[in-house]
Write a structure and sequence with these properties.
The chain is an alpha/beta fold and about 400 residues long. The protein contains 10 helices and 23 strands.
Length: about 400
């Protein structure tokens, strides 16, 4: 057995000054007082449950949908671990992306562990703020393709995002529910009534609540209102303060049972990338993402100013909720770990407790990640682990 020590271990039963004993990848003991065994001492740095990020497209110049080799996927997962993520649903939107992710999920690697696959789309409708209707990849719902998605996932497909109002969406929602795949309300123009019909048919998650969906209005509270009001729905929430303003985050957390909130990042390849502007996509002549800008504030935006994912990880959102909104860290980490594990039935994960997997993150008082343990293995150490941005990605940096 190995032990790690801290004066502030955020366990399921409160904050402990003591030791976590790890054996066979799990928490074998939580000890207070003295210990006559070797241990790794983290002093007053906090040990919290590993973050489980179920909406994450990539990091450090890697995008899961564009990874052609397992090595690229693993490099991305190491970058995630450096941000305190121990479990992840890589987020893509085509069945062809699933096999390589399933392959890596079935292996022990140095980085965040793949716990499922999230298909964000391809069946949406809304273009979002400053969006151009010509600049979408949405396709009609195809139930045969839905079955192909399930088969390609080899049991790892956990979440499919879909706009509930599009033609045949309800049939797809019912199909995925029948094979135990969760569906979420995504990129949707649905009004309150339409959103409720989607929920009645099986939608139980809100994709990045507030973003690219009909919002709160005093005559129709839209998809956002339906997802807040319906207890069946667990809401993803980006807490970077950019996608959803912190006053709105505060309002949401007052309205919605916090046990039904899951913090997510919506990170893409620009997490960990230097500030500057980058060559974007050339796939669509109407696309406003030919150039992507990463700002000092942390925005990732297109030429028209449209948000294009986040450059801030969940740990940054945790800091916002504690240091800016004044919330208790012990309550916040439930939204980044425990609630997620509960929603997706990720057994023995989400909290520091006896017999749970030893998915642990060590953070300092500025919320910098010092070390990350996945199933008891230290996969990231700030002092010794080198995490670099994909050199191919850096070729897309444009001159000032």
């Amino acid at each position: 057995m190995k032990f790690i020590k801290s004066t502030r271990i955020y366990t399921e039963n409160g904050i402990v000054d003591g030791f976590v004993g790890i054996k066979d990848g799990k928490v074998a003991s939580i000890v207070t007082g003295g210990l006559d065994e070797p241990y790794e001492d983290y002093g007053d740095q906090r040990i919290i449950p590993g973050i489980i990020d179920t909406h994450n497209h990539g990091a450090f110049g890697y995008r899961f949908a564009q990874c052609n080799t397992e090595d690229e996927v693993v490099a991305c997962l190491l970058g995630q671990a450096s941000c305190g993520v121990t479990g992840i649903f890589p987020t893509v939107n085509k069945a062809e992306h699933f096999p390589i992710l399933a392959d890596v999920a079935e292996k022990e690697i140095s980085g965040a562990k793949i716990l499922g696959i999230h298909s964000e789309g391809p069946w949406g409708s809304r273009v979002g703020e400053k969006g151009d209707p010509k600049n979408t990849y949405y396709v009609p719902v195809d139930l045969n393709y839905a079955k192909k998605m399930y088969e390609a996932g080899r049991g790892w497909l956990k979440l499919v995002a879909i706009a509930p109002e599009v033609d045949k969406a309800l049939e797809a929602i019912r199909y995925f529910k029948s094979v135990n795949v969760t569906t979420s309300a995504y990129h949707t123009n649905a009004n309150y009534a339409e959103a409720n019909i989607g929920i009645d048919n099986g939608i139980s998650v809100a994709t990045h609540l507030g973003n690219v969906m009909t919002g709160l209005h005093h005559r129709d509270v839209g998809t956002m209102g339906a997802c807040i009001l319906r207890n069946e729905v667990t809401c993803e929430l980006i807490c970077d303060g950019l996608h959803v303003s912190l006053p709105m985050v505060k309002l949401i957390l007052r309205m919605k049972d916090n046990d039904k909130i899951m913090m997510i990042s919506d990170n893409g390849s620009f997490l960990g990338a230097p500030v500057g502007h980058y060559q974007g996509t050339k796939e669509n002549a109407n696309n406003d993402r030919k150039t992507i800008y990463v700002t000092e504030e942390g925005f990732v935006v297109s030429e028209s100013g449209r948000l294009s994912g986040s450059s801030k990880p969940v740990i940054y959102g945790i800091k916002n909720l504690v240091e800016v909104l004044g919330m208790d860290l012990a309550e916040v980490i439930k939204m980044s770990s425990y609630n997620v594990a509960l929603k997706y039935d990720l057994k023995q994960r989400g909290s520091i407790a006896l017999d749970n997997y030893a998915d642990l993150v060590v953070i300092d008082d500025d919320y910098e990640v010092m070390a990350t343990f996945v199933e008891g293995r230290k996969v990231f150490d700030k002092k010794t682990t080198k995490v670099t941005v994909n050199p191919e990605f850096l070729k897309s940096v444009l001159p000032d």
